[in-house]
Design brief:
It contains 7 helices and 11 strands. The chain is of the alpha/beta class and 247 residues long.
Amino acid sequence: MSANALYTDLSDYYDLMCADIDYQAQSNSIHRLHQIFGNGANTHLDLACGTGPHVRHFIDYGYKSSGLDLNQPMLDKAKTRCPEAQFSLQNMSEFKVTEQLDLITCFLYSIHYCDGINKLKECLASVHSALNVGGIFCFNTVDKNKIDSDSFVEHTATSENSFFTFRSGWHYSGSGSKQLLKLSIEKTTADKTLVWHDEHPMVAFSYTELKEALKPYFEIHIFEHDYDKITPWAERSGNAIFVCVKI
């Protein structure tokens, strides 16, 4: 099964798959960073917004928030969650907006869904074009040179008489600009178990490469991947939050 097919077929389970994510802590952290580095205005776009949980929090913080995604079933659920927001079916590498924005976010490492380095650079150019001067772009990312391909995360959940186990982990071969997000999903209902295995191809880059791609457009600030406190990146971890101010 292809990555897109899995994503679409399991759109009903997406929120369950992400049930261990603290969307409020993530949103609040970026809201605080926007207060520090932003231009004081409140128009917001969430790239790869999924079913809209981050958009919901930003609306509650007082933003005029919107989202885009490549998956229409996800956007349908996002619209139900956030009826006051605007959502569009677009690719984040080449999206268009009707008005300039003050904050653009991309959570859950979704920046890596750009299809290769050139598409990543197109995404950065699109973000720059969509932002007001002084607007910021916030996203989290992983350095390809720090990936532990043997590591994975796992959580379980129960829904509608079924028990789910979700596993995910990064894999990088050690060369090139491609990495994989490996997924495993098990669903057990009574005595029947269904298993999905999938691999999402994602763009891989070092932080040195990423900073070079960002430099023409942004003033760059990097923080440790900790949504509870704002701590400058110590240049050791390969897991960080980037705050990029349009220049």
